[in-house]
Amino acid sequence: MSRSHDTVYVTVGESDVAYTVFGDGPIDLLYFYGLGSHVDMFWEDEGSAHWMSALSSFSRLIYFDRRGTGASDGLALNAMPTWEEWTEDVLAVLDAAGSKRAAIFASLDAGPIAMLFASLHPTRVSALVLANTTARFMVDGDYPIGSSQETIDAQIEVIRSLWGTPDLSRFTNPAVAEDAEFAREYARRLRAAATPRTAAEQYRYIMESLDVRAILSLIQVPTLVVHTSENPIVPVSHGQYIADHVAGATFVQVPGKGVSLNDGQARTAALDEVSKFLTGGLPEVEIDRVLTTVVFTDIVESTERVATIGDARWHKLLDAHDSAVREELRRFQGREINTTGDGFFVSFDGPARAIRCAQAIVGAAGEVGVPVRVGIHSGECEVRGGDLAGLAVHVAARIGGLAGPGEVLVSRTVGDLVAGSGIELADHGDHELRGVPGSWRLLSVVR
Q1: What is the pLDDT confidence band of residue 382, given thresholds at 50, 70 and 90?
Q2: Cβ atoms of residues 401 and 411 within 8 Å
């Protein structure tokens, strides 16, 4: 099947992300899936081309490769992006494609990125379709359906040794593995998408760092979860877990033995469910909650400084401080919610950028002679016009009050979300936060 679209690029940070747009249906549909995706080579397999054509028959289809796969820039093995940074690919592609609001269809390791994006940017998402994905791969005390470390190690070894060969189909898509032409084309696409070592390292990072269970309750858009019945990598219980924890989600199990929807029976059943879901008149949802990272900065001992240097000098110093903080907020894309006299109340889409901005603010404020402290927490906030409210705001403010001069303190929630980002955190112990129930484990950002 010939292509009738062009692949173009959008810059995200220091990388280029490849995407293509085709179809003229009434809804925007952003489609992407995990490692092994390739926006150009996908069309060279007849079954895959049919899949894309079917999706574009009722939508304006936007298809892209996330960073680390396909026609997009690759990743350094020692510098994997955080999950929040992968959501930046989604936002950049939607903006570049001129889409104000889109349904998102995400499969495999793209699923967690889509779930996180829907919780961070709910006004940009009209619906969510999640196929053969999970909120967490590894077993945990409260997640018995996850895989053991030994199982994950074995799966990674299979990927490392068989990536880019027809034999990998027998492991990931046994239902179509005997189709020699499919296995050949599938292997060629994988080789074009990533090298064996890159694939193995990315999958290890994904399987060991992924955990988006905490944000499932924040997904407010209509959600359809589709899962093959005999998935060899991600058992059907993982899809059921997602549906059970996203309010109002619909779960559909389709017949299939693959990690993806490659065999004809699974593809046909999934397309039928997806088309009915997305064209059946999606309800409008009023967005009143959002997952965000809240940051409070505060000048240390400001009252004492005013008494020492006088009002006139203090105002000049405060102006220099405010200018320095706002420059860092601009650089790291923070959103100023309010000022607190001698500090700032700010929000970020994700905690890694918030931490890096906080460190920059500490340094910039120090250069103008003003010591600051910072508190950071990620959580659910109520949206009130341009303002944010809720427990997460109070938690961040209380954490900031416990920080010392030049210190950035974060909640354990933030620490969990930036795992794998290269940000170094030190244990700061358990603390009671005034007016907030429970004990809170805090972490200090290592300079």
Answers
A1: confident
A2: no
Three-class secondary structure of residue 30 per DSSP:
strand
**426: three-class secondary structure by DSSP:** strand
Residues 378, 214: Cα–Cα separation, whole Å: 11
**Packed helices 311-332 and 302-309: angle between N→C axes, nearest 10 degrees:** 140
pTM of the model: 0.84
Terminal CA-to-CA distance of the chain, rounded, Å? Answer: 54
Instruction: Select from 295, 330, 292 the least CA-distant residue to 122.
Output: 292
Distances (CA, A) of 177 to 154, 162, 258, 439: 20, 13, 10, 52
Pairing of strands 343-348, 335-339: antiparallel
Name the pLDDT band for 2 (thresholds 50, 70, 90).
very low
Distances (CA, A) of 171 to 110, 174, 230: 20, 6, 12
What value does the CA radius of gyration of the chain take, rounded to a whole number of Å?
23
The DSSP secondary-structure symbol of 140 reads B
Backbone phi, then psi, for 199, in 5-degree steps? -60, -45
CB 290 within 8 A of CB 383: yes
DSSP states of 330-399 = HHHT-EEEEE-SSEEEEEESSHHHHHHHHHHHHHHHHHTT--EEEEEEEEEEEEETTEEESHHHHHHHHH
From CA 245, how far away is CA 223, in angstroms rounded? 11
Alpha-carbon torsion (317, 322, 327, 329), positive or negative: positive
Closest CA to 132 of 291, 243, 15, 2: 243
> Between 241 and 170, whose confidence is greater?
241
Q: Tokens 């499969």 — which residue?
A: 107
